[in-house]
Write a structure and sequence with these properties.
322 residues; alpha/beta; Rossmann fold; 8-stranded mixed sheet; 8 strands; 40% helix; 14% strand; monoacylglycerol lipase activity
Length: 322
Amino acid sequence: MSDFNPPPLLRNPHAQTLIASTAPRKLPLLWRTRALRNAAQDVLLECSDGVRLHGYYNPHPESSQGLAILLHGWEGNGDSAYLLSNAQTLFDAGFSVFRLHLRDHGPSHALNRELYHSARLREILDAVAQVQQLFPHVRTVMAGHSLGGNFTLRVAAQAHNEGIALDQAVAICPVLDPAHTMRRLMEGSFIYHQYFLHRWKRSLTLKLQHFPDLGYGDSLLGLHSLDAMNEFFVPRYTDFGDVESYFAAYALTGDTLADLQVPTHIILSQDDPMIPSVDLARLASPPTLKVETPAHGGHCGFLANWRMHGWIDQRLLELLSA
């Protein structure tokens, strides 16, 4: 296992979290990944109940390592800095790479009338199965960040029952208990709360451009916190009567991972400002699950140095390589 030991100023969790998604890191990544992005195939996935999801596929000419399915976090996308960095590292090492978009993320707002919510596991299971059918490889691995890590763990837990041949899964800073994470966002840094509030509102505004009959435009203007957004949208636009039952539906705590049969690895920094690492103790402990808790890293940061090199890229490669 590689040790994560960033320089002193990069040991601050907020520095790790914020710098990892800003221009000093994103611009060099866009240049380094230009060939990967230009060669990516747009893929439309037909899931059950008429749901359609979108992704980017880069087939490796040799595919010596198999297929890696990567999943971004909430209000991220397939071109988020962390996902591009993962994708390029894995592709360079011999993986074919599929960057899957959650509903209403990336260029997918027009594909489905119903809104995204985090309990929509069925369509992600369908999408992973279809990616395997469309692009068969000897090995399939999956990795996700933040909410994408939460989905990755739930897919891994259901893979055996769903007939999904998943050889390995890695979740980076996954949402463990959504209620605790939302409390952190509400009570913690103003910057994180405003970031996600702005991104969520922007996404919902874009959705209205495609489906104006959803009719929440005037109400959206008066919602000024994530709590208010959840209280408004959950009972009206999901199958859940209240926010508490919605959060419980995609929590990983309790027995959610008890029957996990896929070899799975969680990487969660002890100083993550959004995901309380103490919640790891509330997960089931099947023998297939390994947990790694670096002291530093923030939320999906893990910048190794001021050249913006991502430690998590090499750690993923170590874990996922055949």
